[in-house]
């Protein structure tokens, strides 16, 4: 597996004055889970975005538009893949990401 373009993803997020709050495997958690950015290993110039189910539709639309513009300026693209939620299983201490499409 080749390296993922973490620096490029961080630049795109920085353009919006947002910050990566946590990174795990192919996911970047941004601004305390407002959205996730996922690396697309098949197409390095593409990033997948998932919005938290608690993120308002208008906010999500504005963020997606701004992220897409920042990505396009770097010859990349943002692909909206739907929503996600964080779930803590009963009796568990670690959260799971549930993608809702």
Helix content: 25-40%
Biggest sheet overview: 6 strands, mixed
Report strand order across the widest sheet: 1-2-3-4-5-6
In the predicted model, the low-confidence regions spanning at least 5 consecutive residues are: none
Annotated CATH topology:
Alpha-Beta Plaits
Assign the structural class, choosing from mainly alpha, mainly beta, alpha/beta, alpha+beta, or little secondary structure.
alpha+beta
CATH architecture: 2-Layer Sandwich
Summarize the structure.
By secondary structure, the chain is of the alpha+beta class.
What would you say this structure looks like, in words?
- The structure is a single chain.
- With 101 residues, this protein is an alpha+beta fold.
- It has a single domain, classed as Alpha-Beta Plaits, CATH 3.30.70.
- It is 26% helix and 36% strand.
- The protein is globular, with a radius of gyration of 13 Å.
Mind sketching the topology for me?
Blueprint: H1 6-15, E1 20-24, E2 27-30, E3 35-39, E4 46-52, H2 57-72, E5 77-87, E6 96-99
Parallel strand pairs: 4-5
Antiparallel strand pairs: 1-2, 2-3, 3-4, 5-6
Notable characteristics:
single chain; 101 residues; alpha+beta; Alpha-Beta Plaits; six-stranded mixed beta sheet; 2 helices; 26% helix; globular
